[in-house]
Specification:
By secondary structure, the chain is of the alpha/beta class. The protein is about 35% helix and about 25% strand. The chain has eleven helices and 17 strands. Strand 5 and strand 6 form a beta hairpin. The longest helix is centred in the middle third of the chain and has 19 residues. This is Ornithine cyclodeaminase. Belongs to the ornithine cyclodeaminase/mu-crystallin family. Keywords: NAD. InterPro entries: NAD(P)-bd_dom_sf, ODC_Mu_crystall, ODC_N.
Length: about 350
């Protein structure tokens, strides 16, 4: 497929296109390349527009818009989080995103982001761990084995050298699903009967549960020296996974503090509790891990710049792969002021 020539035509990456793109590139290669794109944008963090996501909360879940711009491109993601959906055979999280040209405001890409969000979340988690986990970390516990678990496992394998996986979920069938899906991946997978068992011997602990409530997935006695915690689940007011005492013992790293203090684990702490922004570690402005006994915590909530990076990465793949459809999305009359004339002309050619 050739490059897009008409401004009214917007490339659309469907779920089918996204899946084919992932397999064309290779899952682990996709995660590595996506992480590199995210790191590029984190290293120029200061130039981006930044604001907490715009959230509409209900008793059933949340619907959010996540916008940002680097001055040349503008991107946003629409995403929901509805934990009860799983009981109805639906996804807990779904998403789509748009990338636009700041110069003229025209969309340049419309893409599914349910699969892409899982990939970018995992890539960001593993990227953070490259800077925060001990270099000799090879065993990871994953507590919560739903839709995100396999992506996290493969990202940590590809970027951090994790070789052993310890799984726990209150629904054992979720852990069994995860083990089946990771068969042949090169990961040594162990199913555990409790969170406590899962974290035994783990260098990295990933929590990725979905219930919309305050919970204690990890207690203080479960976290030994030198562990890196990747707190992925939660991400809304009143939803946490870690006991407050863990936060007191950890050096905490975040994406965007104004958002994380509302939605992340640190909502349990005073408003001035010290945190370090991840971009500062990547650019050398702040220390990440300083010794082997330090407990590091990535209080991940997901930020719009990561979605911007993901959309930018996917768009760069379109010309070489042709994995998109041409979507007639924008009215583009020959005479910009004659929009009604365009409508009239459509009648004469029998389009109604």
């Amino acid at each position: 497929m050739t490059a897009i020539a008409n401004l009214n035509i917007v490339p659309f990456v469907s779920v089918d296109h996204m899946m084919k793109l992932v397999w064309r590139v290779g899952v682990e290669s996709f995660l590595i390349e996506l992480a590199a794109t995210i790191e590029e944008d984190f290293r120029r963090w200061e130039i981006f527009d930044k604001s907490p996501r715009i959230a509409s909360h209900s008793s059933d879940g949340v619907i959010e818009l996540m916008p940002t711009s680097d001055g040349t491109l503008y991107g946003f993601k629409y995403v929901n989080g509805h934990p009860k959906n799983m009981r109805q055979g639906r996804q807990t999280v779904t998403a789509f995103g748009v990338l636009s040209d700041v110069g003229n405001g025209y969309p340049m890409l419309l893409s599914e982001m349910t699969i892409l969000t899982a990939l970018r979340t995992a890539a960001t988690s593993a990227l953070a761990a490259k800077y925060l986990a001990r270099p000799d970390s090879h065993t990871m516990a994953v507590i919560g084995n739903g839709a995100q678990a396999e992506f996290q496992a493969l990202a940590f394998k590809a970027l951090c050298g994790v070789t052993h996986l310890r799984l726990y979920d209150i629904d054992r069938s979720a852990s069994e699903k995860c083990r089946r899906n990771l068969a042949g991946s090169g990961l040594d997978v162990t199913l555990c009967t409790s969170s406590q068992e899962a974290v035994e011997g783990a260098d990295i602990i990933t929590t990725v549960t979905a219930d919309k409530q305050c919970a204690t997935i990890l207690t203080d006695n479960m976290v030994g020296p030198g562990v890196h915690i990747n707190a992925v689940g939660g991400d809304c007011p009143g939803k946490t996974e870690l006991h407050r005492d863990i936060l007191s013992r950890s050096d905490i790293f975040v994406e965007y503090p104004p958002q994380t203090r509302i939605e992340g684990e640190i909502q349990q702490m005073p408003a001035d509790h010290p945190v370090t922004e991840l971009w500062e570690v990547m650019t050398g402005r702040a220390l990440g891990r300083s010794d082997s006994r330090q407990i590091t915590l990535f209080d991940s909530v997901g930020f719009a710049i990561e979605d911007f990076s993901a959309l930018r990465y996917v768009r760069a793949k379109l010309t070489e792969t042709g994995l998109y459809a041409e979507l007639d999305l924008l009215a583009d009359p020959d005479e910009p002021r004659d929009l009604y004339g365009m409508l009239l002309r459509s009648k004469t050619v029998g389009s109604v």
